[in-house]
Amino acid sequence: MLDIKLIRQNPDLVAEQLQKKKFTLNTAEFLTLDAARKQAEADSQSLQAERKQASKKIGELVKQGTPVEEAKKTVNETLAKIETQLEALKQKAQQASDALHNLMMEIPNIPDDDVPAGDDENANKEILSWGKPKKIDFEVRDHVDIGTELGGLDFDLASKLTGSRFAVMSGGMARLHRALTQFMLNTHIVDHGYSEIHVPFIVNAESLRGTGQLPKFADDLFKLEGEQNYYLIPTAEVPVTNIARDRIFEAKEFADGLHFVCHTPCFRSEAGSYGRDTRGMIRQHQFEKVELVKMVRPDQSSDELEKLTLHAEAILQQLELPYRKVILCGGDLGFSALKTYDLEVWLPGQQKYREISSCSNMGDFQARRMMARWRNPETNKPELLHTINGSGLAVGRTLVAVLENYQTADGRVEVPEVLKPYMGGISVL
RNA sequence: GGUGGGGUGUCUGAGUGGCCGAAAGAACUGGUCUUGAAAACCAGCGUACGUGAGUACCCAGGGUUCGAAUCCCUGCCCCACCGCCA
């Protein structure tokens, strides 16, 4: 959520900045709504003030021994007015305030100054290219062919068990998948200093509102049946970031911010992506991810995003997977993000770089929705903190990258050096 | 699932219809004292909206009342015990 004062004071500037994100802010609607809210609240409040005074007067008289009914008579006029008007005024004020809040909840974050202009992913700007795609002097297979021929990757079976966009892994393949997870977790915990955390994979609507998935993107989520408004998490970002919801961290515990690494499955409905990536495990309803989440002081978030992105890159580098780092343009930037770096890994099977990590600084956007604060020692006041998150990395897609980049002429797959300690002596699948 | 007890400010915790935005303590901030620190003492110390007067907020939502942190209803959560189950 944006700071309402900011819109109030500079509606045109905010609208212009949001345009970079392809979002059109109806400033006239906003200002009208805000003015209506203010008027309605003022009316309702002055009447409430009258009521309070009248009640006080009754209280005093009663204490002096006047019978209640008689005391009420002295403020008859006020009581009558309250009776006829207050309820309606209160409702009007509530409706106006709700309408404004709903509007605020659907306004995306303002992009950072660094963010390049552009409509879609084609305008994203490459800022780094690491490693070179290996020359493969035999017929290149994609991960589906590799995994199916080798065994261990079965999409037909998954389709029987559930439906499309799922996979069954078995044997060495399943182990390689697990090895990747363990390697990522250990690297972030030991080398990068993150705290490991394990969280629920099911969250309530409030958590999803906090991070920005609701109310606008309900279609992307799997909602559970039942009386509770429960959802499967689309990313660990949701439960982990919401740790800070409705909290005020003391300056001491917050000096270096909070850094979490969390491994979870992620569930996405992929509504609206019917034709895309139907082959293989690039786009699944269920996938695993090792997520990095930071809650930091506002003055540190910019640096911390850089560091977090480097931590994600370190995984690709240690796996010796060629990748490029791009900064997303305004039109491709997510709803809650101020600035996002995508890491795209080279996939020989597609002869393309594909997204494997997305690292974003949300600024105070999520914190304002969550009321996540820290006590600034300089002001001694609770102030909004900043949230940052990034994949380090998407495990399923990393498996795809390993299979395709480490394939051999005879249809097998070499185990990357750094994963060998996790593979119990297996060096080739 | 059953029974009982609870949810109050950053934290602990008092408050059972008007004197309560709310005692007290802790923490925090400033000051006095001290070579410095600790201790002690003094003062300050919630949030949102509103130019302001003011209004709202004591888990959430309803209700009773002229008036609700306080009474009633519903829900959620926590604690204890019992039952059931991994």
From TrEMBL:
InterPro entries, A to Z: aa-tRNA-synt_IIb, aa-tRNA-synth_II, aa-tRNA-synth_II/BPL/LPL, Ser-tRNA-ligase_type_1, Ser-tRNA-synth_1_N, SerRS_1_N_sf, SerRS_core, tRNA-bd_arm
GO (cellular component) term, any one: cytoplasm
Ligand binding (ATP): 268-270, 355-358
Residues forming coiled coils: 33-106
Keyword Protein biosynthesis belongs to the record: yes
Pfam family, any one: Seryl_tRNA_N
Record keywords: Aminoacyl-tRNA synthetase, ATP-binding, Coiled coil, Cytoplasm, Ligase, Nucleotide-binding, Protein biosynthesis
Pathway(s) it belongs to: Aminoacyl-tRNA biosynthesis; selenocysteinyl-tRNA(Sec) biosynthesis; L-seryl-tRNA(Sec) from L-serine and tRNA(Sec): step 1/1
Top-rank taxon: Bacteria
GO biological process: selenocysteine biosynthetic process; seryl-tRNA aminoacylation
Family note: Belongs to the class-II aminoacyl-tRNA synthetase family. Type-1 seryl-tRNA synthetase subfamily.
Free-text domain note: Consists of two distinct domains, a catalytic core and a N-terminal extension that is involved in tRNA binding.
NCBIfam families noted in UniProt: serS (TIGR00414)
Name assigned to this protein: Serine--tRNA ligase
Organism: marine gamma proteobacterium HTCC2143
Encoding gene (name): serS
